[in-house]
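[Automated response] Your request has been received and processed.

Submitted sequence:
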Amino acid sequence: MAASTPVGAFECDIALNRVTPPEFVRDVRHGVTYLAAEDYELAYETTLEFHDGAKLPIKGKLFGEQNRQIVIRSSDGTPRQLRGWVRGSFQLLDQRDQVLFRGTYFDVDLVVELAGDEDLTPVTLRLEHWENGFGEADYLGHAISLSVSLIRKSAALTGHGSGHII
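Generated structure:
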């Protein structure tokens, strides 16, 4: 491991961008509406700011493998929320596009407030995003954990995260 390879606790700001957006399939069973999507990609760029002052610019690639949601309706049948979870894999790359970490990500407590139409028009979206993986290249023999509360009110899905590399 190079002496300049930062490790320890860090913070970062994340704004997720759609590379290949999810294409949801709607399924209605026994009057309940389910949505499912697979095989899509998201990305972000950020700088991990370590508590000791070190900085590590990275690029994140997220590969959505399972996105499952259910429509929550009011007593009159109006769609009010989507609730669900997401699972996928991720890669963190340095500025030369060399993979530093690979692992699994999970989005839990996914809540989408809806406008109330059958098109399921989103108003706001929030979720808890977790990334956990193992190192490669300069980070071989290390592990990373990152968590961030993400919210989208109009544009990108954004949040302030924290984590650690050990």
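Summary generated for your ticket: The beta strands are 8-20, 25-29, 32-37, 40-50, 55-73, 79-93, 99-114, 122-135, 143-152, 157-165. The mean pLDDT is 95.
If you did not submit this request, please reply to this message.
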